[in-house]
Design a protein that fits this description.
The structure holds 3 protein chains of 3 kinds. Chain B is an all-alpha fold. Chain B has 9 helices and no strands. The chains are: A mainly alpha, B mainly alpha, C mainly alpha.
């Protein structure tokens, strides 16, 4: 959503022809971003409903999953801390760009990108462990250690939820890298920081989803 | 549409505030992990969701700036949760109430896949009318049949106008395709006839109750069932129980379990 | 009127030249027309499938298709094309894109670039889905019900991906419209002066934004179900196929309102303009629009009365469904009251509006029948349902689209079509439509099931009538196309405002300049302050 128009020339940037002012354009972009986030919530809602079905109808299975430590809560907790930290660095990147502190903007964006990378690495270890043990979704599930009915479906919900979330992280990393390049060219400042703020909203949303995924999947059995 | 030309008026999150929120989020993460170590039963879930929601609110208000933003955006974002809740509530409105109407104790499934109706009859011989069955039949009739057959059974219910052939008029003796014996009416209820759908989902007792009641709506000289008639209806007259020709309908949950067991 | 002629003027059509200037345009008007072009092409394709299906049903036994399987594929394509590629984007993406920014007095939508992206995303999804015509086909019906859609050996995955991708286009369009209406209204265009077409597009956009993502996750899960077997919907793996229906209809029922709300918006604009009277119950119609949009989200279970859904849920959904009739009734009565004692002009758009009122009311009322569980048990999956939703979608949306197309045609190109053939086509379509679909109500009550290539001999007469009706319908559409093409080529100049309408898009030259208005319009009164016949004859605005 962080789209500007045409060429951007440093701080005195021209707003698009159909807006009356840069401020109006900024407000429109931000609202567009919020509406986009609404669609994201509803996109995830399907998975939350699927999860709720398992939770309500097969509490014993959920207990077994928890008891057999199919998911390692320490990994989940580590990633929670990583994402929360990245949310903080993102918030700092946004405020830095609003104040025109170019060095800080670039620095905090790099930090966010790095933390996103850490998140994915942790995720990679989790996934590869599960693939190795055949703790896989649905029909692919072949783990000898736990054969309670519906566990394979729980693993489907786990993989789809975290997979879609992980995809969001990857997309976010691409956008943040693009921002870094623009920030290095000194394109952002007190008069124009729309893309940074929009990416910030997106990134906090990714954090928001994980804030719920962590307890739902890893903690409560 | 204001003319203020100023991103400058935009609220900027102070570094100290950002640090405070960051700290609060970390503390809450520790709290939720810590609480999860104790087994509080269903309270675990509630606490975890409560903590997550506090964290989410902090992120929305401060990191995402909703506290300083137009109310419009708060309304927009909140809408998504309202509709997510609608999605959940109505879906669960189905899932949680599925077992109620279908025969409740249809839990045992015969290995060959046919479903035994494990409906123990309350009556010794449900195919023989008795006042209790008639009273039950009257209730069922009001719930299931009046829409088409009308309150008096004259085939003049509100939905009858749209049906061709017209619903059976129970108050007269002639024209009954399958006859007026209780076993015949039972058969019609089980299999359906023309526009009338099968009511095989009703337990056998209920179908018998309806059959007896429907007979009372018309002239009283209709024939009684012979042993052979009953045999045709799947009843062994010498045995006890409500009798059941194998149920063809099973609850969706049972079907799902069956399919997954078989594969 | 500031400018009565565009002879020397710069307009959006001659502003720049060449194919590239169209394909890469950010101008909402050009994007709207590009949508229109593709959608009409798909309408032709979907229509051909419809004619083949009807031909097959001309008599019992097999007529055209080699096997019932190919018949299944034909009605699947007819349904999927018409729903996802035609009726959903028809009014919002094509007419809405063109008209919305003009009606709010803006130069463009809020995010022109995303608007173009939305178009190409739509086109991309469409091509992926349509490619299955050449690769293995698809035979699930447009509803993709599990578990069949999981098992079928046809290219269901590709079609699901296509629909998934087209969903993004729908979301982007809705998002763009909401922000445009919030942020880009001309000075003086307060919420209570917003044309009802915009209220309708606004409500539609909200529904699109809220419902489409759920379709996306549903289709994604189904794709995963087909590819790796995640088991959420697959009973074989312990999943619940009825849960799929909940997911699917959470989107697809609101989608019905995505189709019909903009249609109601067109009618709300056309009727006062041709009655020369202020609209009756402006606020009531606007509120009813939102009422319908809201209720849209809580009635989906009425598609599932016989699916194994609990009877408690049946009861709740049945009750909620009947609520839809209330705001719909408010609208129909308001339109009738608008016409009451008006100076009616039966130009082509108004003719279609009358057709809409007639046909849509039948479609709506039969919907109430189907909302009654005990009646629905009897009528589910019969031709009664087929007739009902065609009365709503074709009779409702398509007739309103044709009303809108004829109403705004002079604005699109600055030229006028021939009234004679246009009216003849309108009558052909109205008659053809009713002859095609009314017998299907009767067939449904008699118990003819839908989705079969063959039927019992006693249904032959009515099916024959229905098939003959479909030919009339086809001739009507061809006539519309021919007449509009002729108007485009050699129609007389229409002037800026041939109907004497008061909404903003008519207060600028036709075709409109590149930036819509020569100077920013200022709104001083409501959109329907018509004052009798005179306004039409004399100078307007």
């Amino acid at each position: 959503m962080a789209q500007g128009t045409g060429s951007v020339s440093h701080l005195d940037r021209h707003h698009a022809h159909h807006f009356k002012s840069g401020h109006e354009e900024f407000e429109a972009c931000k609202q567009g971003m919020w509406i986009f986030l609404v669609t994201e919530v509803l996109f995830f809602s399907g998975m939350f409903v699927a999860y709720a079905v398992l939770r309500v109808f097969y509490p014993d299975m959920m207990h077994d999953v928890h008891h057999h430590k199919l998911l390692d809560w320490r990994m989940g907790a580590l990633n929670t801390v990583v994402l929360i930290t990245s949310s903080w660095t993102m918030a700092r990147a946004v405020s830095s760009s609003q104040r025109g502190e170019q060095k800080n903007t670039v620095g905090f964006l790099w930090a966010t990108l790095l933390l996103a990378g850490v998140f994915l690495v942790v995720k990679y270890f989790e996934y590869s462990h599960k693939i190795h043990e055949h703790i896989l979704p649905g029909a692919q599930y072949a783990y000898e250690g736990l054969t309670t009915a519906k566990v394979p479906i729980f693993m489907s919900v786990y993989f789809v939820m975290t997979g879609i979330h992980g995809l969001h992280v990857v997309i976010g990393m691409g956008v943040i890298y693009y921002l870094i390049r623009r920030a290095k060219r000194n394109e952002f400042g007190p008069r124009y920081f729309t893309p940074v703020e929009m990416t910030g909203l997106y990134w906090h949303f990714v954090d928001l989803v994980w804030i719920y995924l962590f307890p739902l999947l890893y903690l409560v059995g | 549409m204001s003319e203020h030309h100023s991103n400058e008026q935009h609220h900027i999150l102070s570094n100290s505030m950002a640090a405070k929120i960051f700290g609060a989020l970390l503390v809450l993460t520790v709290v939720t992990v810590w609480v999860a170590q104790f087994d509080l039963g269903s309270l675990n879930f509630a606490v975890a969701m409560l903590v997550a929601s506090v964290k989410a609110t902090l992120v929305c208000l401060f990191f995402m700036g909703l506290k300083y933003d137009h109310k419009e955006n708060t309304v927009i974002f909140s809408t998504s949760f309202i509709f997510m809740i609608i999605f959940m509530i109505l879906t669960f409105g189905d899932l949680l109430t599925r077992g109620d109407v279908y025969v409740k104790d249809m839990s045992k499934i015969i290995p060959d896949g046919a479903v035994a109706a494990q409906t123990k009859s309350k009556y010794e011989k449900a195919w023989v009318s008795n006042p209790e069955l008639l009273a039950h039949g009257k209730e069922l009739f009001a719930a299931q049949c009046v829409t088409c057959h009308g309150a008096g059974g004259a085939g003049n219910g509100v939905a009858a106008a749209g049906l061709n052939p017209k619903p059976r008029n129970f108050t007269v003796a002639d024209g009954w395709k399958n006859g007026r014996k209780a076993s015949a009416i039972y058969g019609t209820l089980t299999k359906g006839l023309n526009s009338m759908p099968a009511f095989a989902s009703l337990p056998p007792d209920d179908r018998w109750a309806l059959s007896h009641y429907v007979r009372t709506l018309g002239p009283h000289e209709s024939e009684k069932d012979s042993a052979e008639d009953l045999k045709k209806a799947g009843i062994d007259a010498s045995g006890a129980g409500g009798g059941s020709a194998g149920e063809k309908q099973i609850p969706i949950d049972v079907a799902i379990d069956l399919m997954s067991e078989k594969s | 009127m500031s400018h009565s002629t565009t002879a020397h003027g710069d307009n959006y059509l001659n502003h720049s030249h060449g194919l590239k200037s169209w394909l890469l345009t950010l101008d909402h008007k050009r994007i709207g027309l590009m949508y229109l072009f593709v959608i009409l092409a798909m309408f032709l394709l979907g229509g051909i499938f419809a004619l083949l299906v009807r031909w097959e049903l001309f008599a019992p036994g097999m007529q055209f298709f080699s096997s019932p399987n190919t018949y299944n594929q034909a009605f699947t394509y007819h349904g999927a094309i018409m729903v996802f590629m035609v009726v959903i984007p028809l009014i919002p993406a094509a007419i809405g894109n063109f008209i919305l920014p003009m009606q709010i007095g803006a130069k463009d939508v809020a995010f022109p670039r995303w608007n173009l992206v939305s178009y190409y995303v739509y086109l991309f999804g469409l091509l992926i889905a349509a490619s299955t015509l050449f690769i293995n086909k698809v035979d699930t019906g447009w509803t993709f019900y599990a578990p069949y859609s999981i098992r079928t050996g046809t290219s269901a995955t590709l079609v699901l991906m296509g629909a998934f991708i087209m969903g993004f286009s729908s979301i982007l369009t809705g998002l763009n419209f909401i922000v445009s209406i919030h942020k880009l209204r001309a000075p003086g265009l307060t919420w209570d002066r917003l044309p009802l077409f915009l209220w309708a597009l606004y409500a539609t956009s909200i529904v699109q934004v809220l419902a489409t993502p759920v379709l996306a996750i549903t289709l994604l899960l189904l794709i995963l179900e087909r590819t790796i077997g995640i088991g959420i919907f697959d009973p074989k793996l312990g999943g619940d196929p009825v849960l799929f229906q909940h997911f699917f209809w959470f989107y697809s029922h609101p989608a019905v309102y995505i189709m019909v709300l903009p249609a109601m918006g067109v009618i709300s604009d056309v009727i006062p303009a041709f009655s020369r009277k202020p609209i009756f119950g402006y606020k009531a119609i606007a509120a009813a629009t939102f009422g319908i949009a809201l209720v849209a989200f809580v009635v989906w279970g009425h598609h599932m009365f016989v699916s194994g859904q609990s009877e408690f849920a049946n009861f709740v959904f049945s009750f909620l469904t009947m609520l839809v009739a209330v705001p719909t009734g408010v609208k129909v009565f308001s339109w009738l009251a608008t016409m009451y004692k008006g100076s009616l002009r039966m130009d082509t758009p108004m003719l279609y509006a009358f057709g809409f009122l007639f046909v849509f009311t039948i479609g709506g009322l039969t919907g109430v029948f189907l909302a009654v569980v005990s009646v629905d048990v009897h009528l589910t999956a019969t031709y009664f349902v087929v007739a009902h939703f065609h009365y709503v979608m074709v009779g409702g949306t398509l007739l309103a689209f044709l009303a809108g197309l004829h109403y705004w045609f002079p604005k699109f190109c600055g030229k006028m079509y021939n009234e004679g053939p246009a009216k003849l086509a309108a009558w052909l379509i109205m008659i053809g439509f009713n002859v095609t679909f009314f017998p299907q109500f009767i067939l449904g009550v008699l118990g003819m099931p839908r989705r079969y290539a063959d039927y019992l001999p006693q249904f032959e007469q009515l099916n024959r009538v229905s098939t003959i009706g479909s030919w009339f319908l086809a001739v009507g559409f061809v006539l519309v196309a021919w007449n509009l093409a002729k108007g485009l080529k050699s129609g007389v100049k229409s002037g800026p405002n041939p109907w004497g309408a008061l909404t903003l898009e008519w207060q600028t030259p036709s075709p409109p300049p590149h930036e819509n208005f020569l100077k920013e319009p200022v709104v001083t009164e409501g959109p329907y302050e018509y004052r009798g016949e005179k306004a039409l004859m004399g100078s307007n605005a």
